[in-house]
Fold this protein.
Amino acid sequence: MAINNDFINKIISCDKRTVSRAISLIEDEDNRSNELLKKLYKHAGKAYRIGITGPPGAGKSSITNCLVKLLVKNNFKVGIIAVDPTSPFTGGALLGDRIRMTEISLLDGVFIRSMATRGSLGGLSKNVVEACDVLDAAGKDFILIETVGVGQSELDIAQTADTTVVVLVPESGDAIQAMKAGLMEIADIFALNKSDRQGADGIAATLKNIIHLKPPSENKWEINVIKTIGIKNEGIEELLNEIIKHKNHLEDSGFLAEKRKNNLTKKILELVNSRLEVTFWDEKKRKFLEDNLSKIYGRKDDPYSFVERLIDFKI
Ligand SMILES: Nc1nc2c(ncn2[C@@H]2O[C@H](COP(=O)(O)OP(=O)(O)OP(=O)(O)O)[C@@H](O)[C@H]2O)c(=O)[nH]1
Ligand SMILES: [Mg+2]
């Protein structure tokens, strides 16, 4: 399959098979993905990206589903990227996830895709971000990205997402866990899910206290706690309202543009780094390294001077 105008036009009109193929090219790091991303770039930039993260089993998928249904009801086109839905923590969630994913994929204007965590985390976030770019070019108004908040990946996703919703549950210690995992730093909004359980009000109050202890954010946004019951579709309208409020806040204050420009700078730096890495290491330089390693190891030369010579190629 060639990356020709026909292929690009099919993505823009959100032909599901073509969008799916395009994301596969990105996921497989196929040679053609570069060409694809070049051609798609000018068609993207309109979608608003919402990250949904939190501990395993907190109800991220349930909330995502409810949000999608509500957005579709309001005539928005929605894309969803579920990062690693087969979380090792919840085991058998796969079948349930699959059923739910099929259900919402049938809704008008919805495209859902799961992406596995494999390889390096950096690779994960890069691919996920680029998959979002495809959905953006495919005309989605909102893109929801679900990630399990246990490692580095959610921090990367939070960088990309315009609004990050952290889903917690009223279990004792959950708020503390979230603090340890760094989820407090990335939340724009907290969804306290499973609020049908005991102690929800107490945890909501604790969360609010913790939020108030934090220094105010640079963009003056006040983090709120929204109580939800994912399985009963309760609190979802309030949650979406809060997301829209955050969106308006970022847009009106100019912070959205600023954040996206910062991300762009980062992306360009990363692209340059990865290109340079590929082109820099030719055979001669590798051999030079090999030949000098013993000398450096024996402290007759130092890595710093060596690297300077290597980069200037004064060999
Ligand atoms: N009681 C109660 N159960 C809920 C609620 N929301 C979700 N659940 C249940 O919690 C379990 C996990 O829900 P998911 O939506 O799959 O959670 P998740 O965060 O996406 O899980 P992973 O992606 O595996 O980390 C399921 O059995 C849900 O039915 C809620 O508001 N109340
Ligand atoms: Mg899930």
User: Anything to note?
Assistant: Residues 60-61, 85, 97, 146 surround magnesium ion (ligand 2) (CB under 6 Å). The longest helix spans residues 255-280. The mean pLDDT is 88.
